[in-house]
Specification:
six-stranded parallel β-sheet; 24 helices; six-stranded mixed β-sheet; 874 residues; alpha/beta
Length: 874
Amino acid sequence: MLTNTSLYAEKVSREMLISDSQKKHGDLTIFFGTCMGEGKTQAMLEKAYLHRQKGLDVVLGNFHPDSLSRRHAVMECILPNQFGEIDIEAILHRSPGLVIIDELAHNNSSGSRHKFRYQDIEELLDNGINVYTTLSVIQLESNSYMMSNRIGIKAPYIVPDIFFEQAAQIIPIDCKIEEIIRRYNSGEITTSFLTPEQETVFFSLDNLTLLKKSFKKLISFRKNESLRQRIEANKLEDISREGLRLLVHIDEKPKTERIIQRAKELSYTMGAPLFAVYVYTSDSLSNTEQDQLNKNIRLAYRLGAYVIRMTGDNWISEMSSVIKKEKITHLILEREPYKKWYQLRTPYPFEKLIKKCEDIDIYILSKESSIKRKRKISTAIKRPNFTASLTNYVTSILITISFTILLYPLISWVHPQAVIYLCMIILAIQSLFFTTGPILTSAIVVALIIDYFFTLPFGTFTLYRINNLAMFGLFLSIPLINSIFANRLKRQELMSRKREQATNTLLHLSKHMAFVSGIEEVLKVADKAVKESFDLDCTIILKDQNDSLNKVPTFIQHLPINEEEYEVAKWVFSNRKSAGRSTETFMSEEKTFYPLNSVRMRMGVIAVKLKRPFSPHEELIWLTLKRQISNTLEREYLNELATQTLLLQESDKLYKTLFNSISHELRIPVATILTASETLSTIGNDMIKEINNEIYTAGKRLHRLIEELLSMSRVDSGRLSPRCEYYDIQDLIGPVLQQMKIELSDYKLNIDIEEDTPLINMDLVLMQQILTNLLYNIINYVPKHSQINIKTHYENSLFSMEVSDNGPGFNEEDLPHIFDKFYRGAHVPTGGSGLGLAIVKGYAEAMKGTATACNIPGACITITIPSEILIIKE
C-alpha cells in the first residue's frame, strides 16, 4: 500500500529475474576464460562427449557437423532456424538432457524470438534443460566499459553480469598469457571484430595482464558471493571480509551509467555485493530524463546489483534508512567539482548524508566519471521552470496591467509603496496558477509601470538611480522566489495526488477483490482498475482445466488477439515472463503481454497496448496491481476447485450409501428366488422346468450383480484388509474351474503352470474372485468355442497370472478405461455391470499388486502381486 511519505522500499532479488522457483530449472555451466583462443570450446565439447559416453542425452545447439572433429561428430547437431540462430523450438521438442551452445555473448538476427542469445539459453533453462556454453571476461557488461575506456576496444556482444552470476557452475579455462601470445603470433587465434591495429593492442602483454587480473577477480568474487549467501541463509554472524556491502546512488543523469559500471568493477575487486538506490521524489522529469533513469535502473539490474527503490522528498533520510537497514559498509560517490568562493557555505547533498552516517567508509570515484556542471544555488531550490505557453504569458501580463489600470485613478490617494505591496499580492496569487516564466515577466512589466506612472516625477523612468534600481531588483526577487516555492508546492501536490490516486485505486481494488465472488466478476473489477489507473484497454486470457492457456480471451476482450499474438501469449504463460513491446522478447509485437502469476500457480495472461513505457513508479504500481489480480484469481479458482471437490465427496458418499443399502436389501429376495427355483426344479412337468431354468438363470445373474456391488463397496471403503497366507497354485485355479465347470464347458481351456512354482503368499479368497471375474468377462464377451489361456509365472519375488483368449480383443479406445467402474465398451454386447474388472484391479491393488490389460492379439489381462519365497526352518 502506498503512503504519502516513505512509500515503500522494494528490493528485487536477482533470482527472480532469471529463474522461477516454482518450475524445474536447468543448470547453466559456463566455460569461462580471459579472451578468445584459450580452448574454451574444445574443453566444453570434450566434457560433453564424456557425458554422452556415460549415457547422457547430449545435443549440439549451434554447431555444424562439418566443423567438428571425428571424435565429437558423433553427437547430434540441431541445425539453425530460418534466421540462422539457435532453433529453440526444435531443442524444446527434442528435450535433451544437455545442450551445447557456443558463444554466450551474441545478438540474434532481426525477427528472432529473443534479442540476445543468453535469453534463448534462459528459456531452455526455464524448461529444465541443462546448458553448456562459453564466455570471455571481455564480454561481461561490467568489463566492456573498462575495455573501451582503457584500451579503446569494445566487445561487439556483451552479457549481463547477473546472468553470469546465476550460473550453477563456472569452469575456469586458465591459459597462460605467454601461450595466448604464442597462439596469436602463430595465427591460431583469429578475431572478426578487431582491426589489425586493435589486435596488436589487444594481444599485448599489458592488456592481457589486465584481463587476467579481471578474470581472477571474477572467480574470486564468485566464491565470496557463494559464501555470503550461505552465511545469510544460515543467519550466521559475518566478521570476515565478505561482510562488506557497497551502495551507489541512481539518478536520471547520463553520467550515472559510468558510475554504476565503475561501482560494479569495485564490487568485483572487493568481493562484495553491490546495492543501488533510487529515491523517487516529487520533482517532475522530462521525457529524456525519464528514459535515462529507466536506462540506468535497467543497467543496475543487468550488472547484478540489488536495486532498491525508495519514495520520499527527504532524499538524505531515505538514503540513510537504506544504509541502516541493509547494513551498508561502503558508500560509493563521484568526485564533486571544487566549490567556488560563493559556494563554500553550501554543502553538497552527500556531505549531509556522510555527516548523518558516520560509521560507513566512503569511496570517491576519480574525476573520470564526473561531468562538469554548474552548481545550483541551493540543493533545496530546483531550477526555475520558464516553460509555459504564450497564452499563459499574455494572460498574466493582461491581469497585471488591468490591476494597475484600476489603481491609476487612485494615484493621488495611494502611496507608491502601497501600490507595490498590492501588485506583489496580485503576483503572489498568480503564482498559484502560472509558472515562474509568466510571473517573472509580469513582475518586470508591473515594475516598469510603477516606475513610470506611480513614482515621482510621473511620466519618467528613474531606474538609473541606484536606490530605485536596488528596489527594482528586490521587487523582482520576491515574486521570483515566491513562484519557485509555489511551483514546488504544486509539484508536491501533483505527486501527492498521484500517490493518493494510486493508493485509492489499490485500496478500492483490495476492497472489491475481498468481497467479489466469481472469476467473471474478478475480471470486471480488474479491467476497471487497469482503465482507471493507467487509461489502458486490456485483454485477459485465463488457463483452462488442463492448465493450458485458453484459445479465446475470458470475459474481458478490449483488444483483439490474432493467431500470432496468441502464440506470444502462450509463450508468456509457459515461461512466466513478459513479452512484446518495451521488452526484449517478441519486440516487434504492438501489444505487451504480462503473465498473471500468483504465489502458487499461473493463472493466465493480460495483454495491454502501451502508449509509452512505464515509469519506475508506474511499473511498481502495475506489478502490485497485477499481483493482486493474480492472487484473487487464484483464490476464486481454488474456491471453485474446493466446491467441486466437496460435491464429488458428497456424491461419492451418497453413492456408497446407496450401494450398501441396495445390495443388502436385494440379497434376501434374490436368495428366496433361487431357493424357490431349486424347489420347482424337483417337479416333473417339462414346462415348469423350462420356466424354472429361466428363473434360476436370471436369479443367479442378479445374485452375481449383487455380489459385485458388495465387492466394489468393500474396495471403495478403503477398509479391505487382505489376509495373505502361502498357498499352492492349484488351490487357486482348481476350485474356480470346478465351480465354473458348466459355464466353461463350451470353451477350450489351456492351463500353463510353470514347474517348480513355489507357494504363493496371497489372499486366496480375493485371488479366486479375481480369476472368477476374469473368466466371466471372457464368457460374456468372447464367442463360444474360443480358447481360454491361464498362464502363471514367478520371478524376482513377483507372481503373475495371465488370463487371455483368442477373441477379437479390446478396442484401442477402450484400453485406457478397461478397469474403470461401470465402464462398458462402445461395441460390446449388452449384459454385465461394468464392475468385474474394476473389482479385479481393486483386489490386486489391495494385495499391493497391479492389473494390466493389452491385446496379443486377443484380450489379455495380467495380475501381478509380490510374494517372497517361503523359507521353512527346521
